Amino acid sequence: MTPLSRYEQETVVNYNAGEQTATVYTRDRTVMRKLDRLAADFPDTYKLIRQTDIDKTYSMPKSYVTYRKPRKISDEQREQARRKILEINSDGK
């Protein structure tokens, strides 16, 4: 098998209003690892339904497909988080 280009490593999520399940087709190894882990940990929810040597197809409840607003963080919150991480990292030394 030849390695896939970044462009060819696609993931397609497909669902419709008439069914409760979504189908996820992927050629992206990172997505495959995540979905394989979910399928192993939650076999009643995530299912591997088809695979070849370069792709896999999974099914899952379509309610698990989410859309999120971008996270907004103020400069003050960012600075507080930075200080907290520096404090945590310096405690471990």
Please render the helix and strand layout as text:
Elements: E1 11-14, E2 21-26, H1 29-41, E3 47-51, E4 56-61, H2 75-91
Antiparallel strand pairs: 1-2, 2-4, 3-4
Count the DSSP helices. 2
Intertermini distance: 46 Å
**Mean model confidence by pLDDT:** 93
- Strands in their spatial order, largest beta sheet: 1-2-4-3
Structural notes for this entry:
The radius of gyration is 19 Å and the shape is extended. The protein has two helices and four strands, in the order ββαββα. A hairpin with a 6-residue loop joins strand 1 (11-14) and strand 2 (21-26). It has 93 residues and is α+β, with helices and mostly antiparallel strands. The N and C termini lie far apart (46 Å). It has helices at residues 29-41, 75-91; strands at 11-14, 21-26, 47-51, 56-61. The protein has a four-stranded antiparallel beta sheet, covered by helices on one side. The model has no long low-confidence stretch (mean pLDDT 93). 32% of the residues lie in helices and 23% in strands. It has one domain (1-66).
Characteristic key phrases:
single chain, 93 residues, alpha+beta, four-stranded antiparallel sheet, 2 helices, 4 strands, 32% helix, extended
Brief overview, please?
The protein is an alpha+beta fold and 93 residues long. It is built from two helices and four strands; from the N terminus they run ββαββα. Strands 1-2-4-3 form a four-stranded antiparallel β-sheet, with helices on one face.
